[in-house]
């Protein structure tokens, strides 16, 4: 998306301004290392473009910036659960309004911190006290950290994902390595499968890779670059693309939108909320994804 053309509503520093798209406020970063955008609706990274490179984050040209629906593309925050194990699907974080807590910058880049606290809506969905902080570090690379803390007087359990849409020249002309061989296939009723060491897509994919390597690499032949994804605090990596049939069924994606991305997600996967990760009072957990290209 073209962040640079949006007029500034508020100037916070030489590198950080607040802009607005269709009613959704976006923290815009313009630094000599990279440009980026983080929507307050959903705490949602919508852009990251290193200096001299193509955009690394894919956004749908039909994404609904209405302040209600989760944005299609970018890096949705799936929390306090991932998937359809409860309602709403993927939790409430990706459709909640986050608050700008802090911004820091130096010659190396910019750090944006957003916060989400319990409110009437979250408590009606998930009756627990928490503190969520999203730290977005923008340099030559993009590092996104979801830091959640149990501020309640009892333990609670969660799952989640940083649902990154990587921008590709053409997904059909890409290959992926480092995701591991074992995966749970959502298209085969969660059957556990074994795959090869390299993935070349020819159709829909919706897989939870259970033993990913430290680095997952997506080779983009059309844009002549390799995108590296390094995840931490996860138990799996989800790879997803809806392909033509799936894209056609989505109102917020163009029919050919699937060609432009592959989702590579840092994920805490669980079959039920109760099977997720448990935090005791005052305990925290960080789910991280770091993305770079060369």
Automatic annotation (TrEMBL):
The entry lists its GO molecular-function terms as: carbohydrate binding; glucose-6-phosphate 1-epimerase activity
- Name of the molecule in the record: Putative glucose-6-phosphate 1-epimerase
BP GO annotations: carbohydrate metabolic process
Species whose genome carries this gene: Vibrio amylolyticus
Which family does the entry's similarity section mention?
Answer: Belongs to the glucose-6-phosphate 1-epimerase family.
InterPro entries per UniProt: Aldose_1/G6P_1-epimerase (IPR008183), G6P_1-epimerase (IPR025532), Gal_mutarotase_sf_dom (IPR011013), GH-type_carb-bd (IPR014718)
The question of whether Chaperone is a record keyword is answered with no
What reaction is this protein's catalytic activity? Answer: alpha-D-glucose 6-phosphate = beta-D-glucose 6-phosphate
What class does this enzyme belong to in the EC scheme?
isomerase
* Active site, renumbered: 163, 265
The UniProt record lists the EC number as 5.1.3.15
Domain of life where this protein originates = Bacteria
Q: Which Pfam families match?
A: Aldose_epim
**Keywords, alphabetical:** Isomerase
Q: Which PANTHER family match?
A: APOSPORY-ASSOCIATED PROTEIN C-RELATED, GLUCOSE-6-PHOSPHATE 1-EPIMERASE
